[in-house]
Design a protein that fits this description.
The chain has 240 residues and is α+β, with helices and mostly antiparallel strands. The chain has a domain at 93-209: Up-down Bundle (Glutathione S-transferase Yfyf (Class Pi), Chain A, domain 2), CATH 1.20.1050. It has helices at residues 16-26, 42-51, 75-86, 93-117, 130-156, 169-184, 186-190, 197-208, 210-216; strands at residues 4-7, 30-32, 64-67, 70-73. The protein has a 4-stranded mixed β-sheet, with helices on one face. Helix 1 (16-26) packs parallel to helix 3 (75-86), helix 1 crosses helix 6 (169-184) and helix 1 packs across helix 9 (210-216).
Amino acid sequence: MARYQLYYWPSIQGRGEFIRLAFEDAGVPYVDVARLSPPAGGVPALMRLLRGQPGMRAPFAPPFLKVGRLVIAQTANILQYLAPRLGLVGRSEAERLFAHQLQLTIADVVAEVHDTHHPISGGLYYEEQRAEARLRARHFTAERLPKYLGYFEKLLGKRRGLVGRKFSYVDLSMFQLLAGLEYAFPRGFARRTRSIPGLLALRDAVARRPRVAAYLASPRRLPFSEEGIFRHYPELDEGG
């Protein structure tokens, strides 16, 4: 099996997609374990590690990455580990810390997106919290979305990448974030496009990168759906 073993739910993009994009762009082999057939793969293999094994520091939830005997959880934490090994961040400590800072901010956006369709509890179905979701989504698209996008646009300025002169994993994550926002809130997102020309140019540049383009055109790239984090419910796309 490949050196890098990614454990995430096999049927959705979710938080695992940020890590998949890093591997795909770098052209580094990895195994998406839960998408393999049991007993070596599948959800049972994911659950075995999630429950913990003797001497292992068990993760709380997917995604997590297994490298030899090392198990690393949390998307931003995994990317912080992988980026210097995949050539997706600069060498200086300042640059690595800044990249991690931005990735954590992206994680904040993703968490708020999740809470637009599950504002009360992840243990309840969307249909059980629809009224609250509609209110939460209205505030997100009208207030939080432009605030986040405005921050990243200002930070990017006239540069080609968010972190520095060199392309980084944060640029890949921004591509995924923008793609997810456009899927989940097409109307709300469209209202913001005039104010984020730099981010849109960055998104398009990432999509044209040869390995990313090949991945996006392949069956390995799962479609967005109403089972993942970025969900399109028309009634939640009214604000902004």
